[in-house]
Amino acid sequence: MTQESRPYGFEFAGHHSSDFELVVLAEKTVTMPSKRKSQLQLPYRTGYIDLSDLYGLNTYDERTVTFPCRLPYGQANLSLMNQKLTELMNWLMKPTGKTLLKDDAMPGYAFMAEVQTAPTIEEGWNFCKVTVVFQCYAYRLKRCYDDVWDTFYFNLDAASNIEVDVKGHESVLLINTGHNRVRLTVTCSTAMSASVNDHVFALKAGDNVNPYLELMPGENTVNLEGTGHVKFNWTEEWP
């Protein structure tokens, strides 16, 4: 079944919900992440000192995405119903840790999610209602915008030149439109050096990943020294 012809649903752990004949019902809910506050109350002082933005960025608690679904098997055939439910539970509960979750209603975005609480099952004669709750990382993930391949959305996207040829020195402006600092991967055809946000890095030929090689929200200038082709890649994080 092609992506265009399949019914609305979600992708998780290598399968689409339609692979198990699930039909997502209208009651689907997505919670927004709450800000995590760290407040300190001092003696003899009114109010609190807010330490939440000590490092310049907000921190958030996890969120949930809930899919109530209709499974077209019920008590009219108990053996088949239990077989289908077993296949479904094996798919949802088997992954260890958070796995990529894509909601068809949010093209271009994804969650890191895990089914921690067992889905609830309401058996009917001809169908079952299965409610799946995904526990998700606070931010939605969004691939960096590529102005060659991606459709530009003026309200949210910003165009960055993610590939450049360096001949001596080159300054590149990369725009992280997300709300959190993110890891930057720099792929080089030859060894060279780079400075990003006051950090200097020696880059090898191939993929370069470093805990300190990251983009802050907004504009970031990358200064490159050397000769060769460079490609940038990162995943933005959105509430």
**Rounded average pLDDT:** 89
Strand content: 35-45%
Largest sheet: 17 strands, antiparallel
Number of strands: 19
Q: Give the class from helix and strand content and strand pairing.
A: mainly beta
Alpha carbon gap, first and last residue? 32 Å
Helix content: under 10%
Order of helices and strands: EEEEEEEHEEEEEEEEEEEE
Figure out the total of helices: 1
| Weakly predicted, low-confidence segments | none
- Tell me the overall shape: flat
> How large is the radius of gyration?
23 Å
Concise synopsis of the structure shown:
The chain is mainly beta. It is built from 1 helix and 19 strands.
Question: Any descriptors?
Answer:
239 residues, mainly beta, 17-stranded antiparallel beta sheet, 19 strands, 7% helix
Mind explaining what this structure looks like?
By secondary structure, the chain is mainly β. Helix content is 7%, strand content 45%. The protein has one helix and 19 strands. It has one helix at residues 78-93; strands spanning 10-12, 15-16, 23-24, 29-30, 39-40, 49-50, 63-71, 99-103, 109-114, 120-123, 128-136, 140-143, 163-176, 182-188, 192-196, 199-203, 206-208, 214-215, 218-238. The mean pLDDT is 89.
Chain-wise SSE layout:
Elements: E1 10-12, E2 15-16, E3 23-24, E4 29-30, E5 39-40, E6 49-50, E7 63-71, H1 78-93, E8 99-103, E9 109-114, E10 120-123, E11 128-136, E12 140-143, E13 163-176, E14 182-188, E15 192-196, E16 199-203, E17 206-208, E18 214-215, E19 218-238
Antiparallel strand pairs: 1-2, 1-8, 3-7, 4-7, 5-6, 7-11, 8-9, 9-11, 9-12, 10-11, 12-19, 13-19, 14-17, 14-18, 14-19, 15-16, 15-19
